[in-house]
Amino acid sequence: MEEERISRREFMLNLAGMGVLLAGGSLLPALPLAGSGAAEAAPARSLVVVSSSGSVAEKVRKAVDGIGGLGRFVKRGARVVLKPNVGWARRPEEAANTHPAVMTALMKLCWDAGAREILVYENPCDSPSFSFRESGIQEAVEKAGGRMYAANRREMYQEIQIPGGRILKSALVIKGILEADVFINVPKAKVHTATLLTLSLKNLMGVVQDRGFFHMRGLDQCIADLSTRIKPAFTLIDATRILLTRGPKGPGETADPGQIIASTDSVAADSHAASLFGLKGEDIGHLRLAAEAGIGQVNSRRFEVRRV
Amino acid sequence: MMRHLRRLIQVAAWLLFVFLLLKTTFPLDAALPVNLFLRMDPLLAVSTWIASRKLEGLFLVSLITVGATLILGRFFCGWICPLGTTIDTAEKVLPLRNTAPLTHPNISNVRFVLLGGILLAAISGSAIVYFFDPLVIITRGFLLGIFAPALRLLDFFSGHLPLLGNIRLTPIANPSFRHGGVFMLILLGILLLSLIRRRFWCRYLCPLGAILDLFARTAVWRKTVSDRCNACQLCHKGCRMGGVSCIHCYTCVSLCPTRAVKFKFSLPQNRVLDAGGFSRSRRILLAGLGLGAGLAAIQKFGVGWIPPSSRLIRPPNALPGENFSASCIRCGECMKVCITNGLQPVLLEGGLSQIWTPRLIPRKGHCEQRCNFCGRVCPSGAINPFSIEEKPRIILGLARVERKSCVAWSRGSKCYICGEYCSYSAINPQMQRGVPCPVVDSSRCTGCGLCEFGCPVQPDGAIRVYRNNSIVPWRS
């Protein structure tokens, strides 16, 4: 078991090294060399990796490898924090939450990359106990050796300032996410009545305690404002099965694009995911606003979609 | 020997009682039914059977207590009753002085008066047992009065002490219950009665003790005094029940210097001594009749009569109307187990007859779609058990959008939280200048209250659930 781990880790390191070489040869100009928080200034041309063959675990691995491998983000001894979408007491097949198999696969990659601990936070809209159980997430996270927290207590939040925010100037956000060495966003791709779609940026709204403020004061702008301050190392969108109607909770019609989408540019990843619903990134208000704020590329001509 | 065995069983029973109360929460997986102690109570059984005109099967467990009492006597109070154990423990701390019996002999009949009142009220169709039953008092006192603040305190420390890490004792963030302090004070009051006499409650007031006394009259396992007795009176002075009734604590056996006091199988001889002065039956009956009729009348027609509020929403699959208040024993189990903390005790908003019954307060917490815990823990059949599959057909009320305060309707804000939250697809968007505005589909709405819970309009929400008076609970 241990041997297998080491060999995989070496493999990952090799792969990351290759990535660096490739990037050096300007074959991958979009790939920023810095670690987490890479999307500080949106690169001219972002990379969105789409993986759609093999098992869910293989898809996750290929997608993450496609953006440079997890070793690029997760250093040995790192505290990794994941934010899936587990907003609802719905079962995995109902496509209202991130699929537990995606979490299992991603967590394995994190351990292989040498993570010290993996913490998972969510503040569900339904009862946390039922959301965590029905979604299968808690079981998956605990089986994979991580810890799952319901962020439903005031003391788990910390106030942050959002200097780049136009409406949202400050917010209470989950402390654990601020204290992470590596923060990875693991959203679900779904339709959403108020924002058309909920993808990476909308999923980040889940780290804020007072979400009512967003709705009362301007949902799209607040989501964009938050994305100027909360920046995951990368986003891994679960589009294996997507919810087409009655989003974000369902039950509704679903489709199975079978895709896992990875990118360090959340806006570009969301923009690509929008195409699965027959929409363009520009159709989504908060994506447009986030792109205007320089968070990422919403125009499909300005990011590269690589299928692996 | 028997004294130590008694203490051991007492502590074990108390710990089991508390353990089951603590397990009255998600995921509700205790091996024993969490409402076991309440169902063992023959007073609750008889009163509920009579008041509800229905032989609720859950209470058949109480026949075990009756059977054991018929043979062994009123041992329940000294060996099992968690309130009795709590009183015994409190008496170790309280400064006790007076051991002499109270001067007025009739006081020991109060418990029979209460018993008569409870049963007569039950015959008239009113349940008043929840005011006086010891197991209800301690269950409610612990669940609603003590646990919520205690868990919050422990939770606070577990969040701040590095040693405890993030161990959580309750899945609910900050559980709280309306006027929980009242339930704590009732419990405390009963404990403080011991300042007057030891086991004051058990001796003079407890109606469960009274009914057990009646069953114990034929018991064959009883206290006997042999010829070796030298009339030293030590047993009498040491009796925690003041000789009013025997709860088999075996203190007299261990105190007796001549070993004259023994428990053994024998036929009843001295009725008055053993059964606890059950005399003056006519006066008791009259007093009980008066009390029962009085309380029943107050419940039905008296000062507490207020028409039920349109916001008094019952738990899922609760019995309709009067049947509910006749069956509900106000133990607090459903409120403790409610995963969202939305079930809260009623005070007077439904009239005195509805006091301490559960109601859903959606602003506090909704009725979770895939939860059926309240039906599973209700000991009296007031909330019928139901399956998750039945839930969409179980109607609690109906939601209504107040368009004047709704920010989507009135201000064009992109707020559709109620529709996002709705578990039953009962809210549909109506587009107004590109903004989805919520419209309730009354054919799908169950009144679960999640929309009201999630509504960001302060303080009351712009979508509210109202009681649906025409509802008929779904029964399998």
What does this structure look like?
The complex is a heterodimer of chains A (308) and B (476). With 308 residues, chain A is α/β, with parallel strands linked by helices. Helices cover 33% and strands 22% of the residues of chain A. Chain A has helices at 2-24, 56-66, 100-112, 128-134, 137-143, 175-178, 200-204, 212-217, 219-227, 266-275, 285-292, and strands spanning 46-51, 79-84, 117-122, 147-150, 157-161, 170-174, 182-186, 188-192, 196-198, 234-243, 254-255, 259-263, 303-307. In chain A, strands 1, 2, 3, 4, 7, 8, 9, 10, 11, 12 and 13 form an eleven-stranded mixed beta sheet that branches. A two-stranded antiparallel ribbon of chain A has the order 5-6. In chain A, strand 5 and strand 6 form a beta hairpin. The longest helix of chain A is centred in the first third of the chain and has 23 residues, at 2-24. With 476 residues, chain B is mainly alpha-helical. Chain B folds into three domains: 2-265, no CATH class; 321-387, Alpha-Beta Plaits, CATH 3.30.70; 395-466, Alpha-Beta Plaits (2-Layer Sandwich), CATH 3.30.70.20. Chain B is 42% helix and 8% strand. Chain B has helices spanning 2-22, 36-39, 42-52, 62-72, 76-79, 82-93, 110-123, 134-160, 180-192, 200-205, 207-216, 234-238, 251-255, 271-275, 281-301, 321-327, 333-337, 373-377, 407-411, 417-421, 450-454, and strands at 221-225, 261-265, 343-345, 358-360, 397-401, 427-432, 435-440, 463-467. In chain B, strands 1-2 form a two-stranded antiparallel ribbon. A two-stranded antiparallel sheet of chain B has the order 3-4. A two-stranded antiparallel ribbon of chain B has the order 5-8. In chain B, a hairpin with a 2-residue loop joins strand 6 and strand 7. The A-B interface holds A 89, 125-130, 133-134, 147, 149-150, 152-153, 155-156, 192-195, 211-213, 215-220, 246, 248-249, 251-252 and B 26-27, 155-156, 159-160, 166, 171, 173-174, 339-340, 368-371, 407, 413-417, 419-423, 425, 429, 436, 450, 454, 456-457.
